[in-house]
Specification:
Number of strands: 11
Strand content: over 45%
Helix content: under 10%
Distance between the termini: 29 Å
Largest sheet: 11 strands, mixed
Number of helices: 2
Number of domains: 1
Length: 202
């Protein structure tokens, strides 16, 4: 199961410094659901091969001061009573994303998930994420902590990602849209975890 997390972060600041204000940014993360083997056995996680942001601070600090390389991008977000129109284009020209849609009452009938609750549980379990680092065969780890977890269905009118449309990565017909979820006003924290190294196979 693959997807794109489109994330607006507000009032971002170090957890050790209480503040009533902070940085704001628009962000996008292409992700894959995976399972990783740890000290306590196998657990749900996500692999994030690509992160994009409109924040120069995130771009400069990502992979240095906090986990995950962040690529600089431009974002256009139009919010109206009728819904949302979103567009992103990376500065390096490698990735672009577009979608439009609105909040809804139910998942698409053809979704792989039988209910909103089932989809919610699946994505909540993927709070641990690993991203490519500046070191070969080493992945930065980060875990998401939320004060609450609440999602709602989101009806998509059109969606496009140049990453998932890349025939060199995904053969034609191998990627199919399933559904979208919406989260709003969720207090949360990100915490780094130990990096993961991949050894050469013998």
């Amino acid at each position: 199961m693959a997807g794109i997390c489109l994330i607006r972060l507000e009032k971002i600041h170090p957890a050790c410094i209480p503040m009533s204000f902070g940085l704001k940014s628009e962000n996008a993360a292409h992700r894959f659901a995976v399972k990783v083997q740890g000290k306590d056995g196998e657990r749900e996680a996500v692999y994030v091969p690509r992160r994009d942001t409109n924040s120069r601070w995130n771009h400069m600090a990502g992979g240095r001061l906090f986990p995950g390389i962040q690529h600089l991008a431009t974002f256009t977000v139009d919010e109206t009573e009728d819904g949302y129109d979103f567009a992103m284009k990376s500065v390096d020209g490698k990735v672009s994303v577009r979608f439009s849609g609105r909040e809804s009452e139910a998942l698409p009938v053809a979704s792989l998930f039988e209910s909103l609750q089932e989809a919610s549980r699946f994505f909540e379990a993927g709070s641990l994420g690993y991203s490519d680092s500046k070191q070969d065969k080493q992945y930065d780890g980060m875990v998401l902590h939320t004060e609450q977890w609440k999602v709602s269905p989101f009806a998509v009118d059109q969606v496009y990602s140049s990453y998932f449309e890349d025939d060199h990565l995904f053969p034609p017909g191998s990627v199919e849209f399933d559904h979208a979820l919406f989260m709003k006003n969720i207090p949360h924290e990100w915490h780094p975890v130990s990096e993961m190294k991949v050894e050469d196979e013998k």
